[in-house]
Amino acid sequence: MAQHANAEYLDRHPDANFTMIQAFEWYGEGGGKHWDKLTELAPKLADWGLTAMWVPPPTKAAGQESVGYDIYDHWDLGEFDQKGGVGTKYGTKEQLLKTIKTAKEHGIVTYLDAVFNHKFGADEKETFKAKQVDWNERDKELSDLYDIQGWTGFTFPGRGDKYSSLKWNFNHFTGVDYNDADPDTKAIYKIEGENKDWARNVDKENGNYDYLMGADIDHDHGEVLEDFLKWGQWAIDDIGAAGFRFDAIKHIDEKFISKFVKNTREVTGKPKLFAVGEYWKDDINDLDSYLDSLGTQFSLFDAPLHYNFKQAGEQGAGYDLTKIFDGTVVQKRPIDAVTLVDNHDTQVGQALESWVSSGFKPIAYSLILLRPDGYPCVFWGDLFGTLGDNPQKPVTQLNDIIRARKLFAFGELRDYFDHPNCIGWVRMAGGDRDGLAVVACNGDEGKKRMEVGAEHAGEKWTDVLGWHQGEVTIGEDGWAEFMCPARSVSIWTKTDARGREEFGKGE
What we know:
Elongation Factor Tu (Ef-tu), domain 3; 3 domains; TIM Barrel; 24 strands; Immunoglobulin-like; eight-stranded parallel barrel; disordered N terminus; single chain
């Protein structure tokens, strides 16, 4: 468990299990209602066992109903009349502050989605010199230097100089993909400037993957760096956030990310401030190298684990469950892993769609929620379902699996990964904790003989999910045979364990 994840909560609850929710999905309801919905849900989320929420980008985007990744103004959290209105898709700044405050009162801290790679929705176009570069080899120049017209002037007329006086122009960016003087030409344009170049400490896809979209931010520019560092302190000290989720970090110079995190921890006096990055790549070597290079504690979403889950769901009984953690961040660097099943990018209908099959999701969530390693992140779409043209249903009783983590997933881990289609593990708990035993099968109905401890001899245990009917009596030696339905999971604990009455009540 990543104990840096929620330092303030840890001080009050040193034996708590931290669980994060990605508190949105791509097709979520707009109209400024989301912050109020999270405020209303806070008591229920806390009761289930959630201790942190990653909220969508709260910053003003280029469009009024935008999900938020086409960032316009970092300093406008739904406070100023810009880009079609005062609020964002999710609501106003006032509503956001109420959400953060209410969640904290219920033991849930808030992580802001920080979109630092690019900007959209400029207020003015400018003329400047640039060169076309190859889409597939960004260091290969395809033209001489010439004047283009790009949308790079950000004057923020609705906000003025409140919070920040910086007005952005082409000098604050490294590239664009649109020339207003030649709109029919589709190209990436590298902006000319003194000591200006693509960032070098980025992913090596396309030779250099600094440029992703929009007006690509130059993090080496002194004014840009200063503005972001100020924003980081403001987000924590004034807005009340407890950390950040960084978008698209494989396109951002890792030196900037490191500097931002170190500085924010220092100036806010919070050395354990949480930071997780989206480096979406199915390659543990690249992710491991990135974490090594930062020079400060940092977490990454475990993309390789997600792809293992997807493969396992597709292959069914042909997948060897004993290999489920192979090549993952949580296996190699558990303290730095934020584990997940799906997210807003992998959900059905998105560009990176790689949806884990609904039949495998209960197993996947048991693997991230009921074991000690990693900091699990539950996806809103799995807990409440998704909207859009192809809506997806919630994962059955996912709230009960979260609750099982809250109440029973403690103590020593004992693994029984000895069959390709049926695996199990035990959390020994101890003291005033009750512990649990988990069996997961991707084939026929399975059984697993496991030890829960002689101190439990004679106890009656049942599946808290109710998916496997029947009762198990723990033997005098502390061993018992636990069952699991075909292609499913069972979570066993004693029948009179504290909190058992809360299971199976629905959402």
